[in-house]
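Service request form, structural biology core

Requester: graduate student, group of Dr. S.
Request type: structure prediction, single chain
Budget code: on file
Notes: please return the result as structure tokens.

Sequence provided:
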Amino acid sequence: MTISSFSRVALIAVTTAGLSGCGGGWFGGGSDPDARQANLDEQYQNTPMAEMQRERRSTSTVWDLFDGDDPNVKVEVNKYLWQASLEVLNFLPVRSVDPFTGVIVTDYGTPPGGGRAYRATVYVQDPALDARSLKVSLQSKGGPVSQETVRAVEDAILTRARQIRVRDSRL
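Core staff response, request fulfilled:
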């Protein structure tokens, strides 16, 4: 047997093995498309996605948009903390605001009477008016900001939020 005939035999063997692994047509079993689709449907029914869809179909209504417990649908942001954050940090140019997630991102700005530029990210994460609902992150062009400065900004936002709430309760 010469090298060229051996390479031909090897090529035919590799091609046959490759085609038989495809699972359809002449070499594979079960060429019935309906049987394959039924098998795929049965496999899909055991997945977590199918379970979620079955649950959603059985319990969802139009009114779930208004009173559902899904945190992706309801807005869970304290309006007083939101407004106070925008008022206290009004010297910073706003980069992005998302009232549905409660995130305010600002660009660098200098406070009145200060020489150091800051940027802030504020996260209002709960509808309650307390310190746990507010997360503030400050950064200067020179690096991170001290915890005392961050705490002072948080306290200023919380104080302003309480003032706004008291003002609204008098109406």
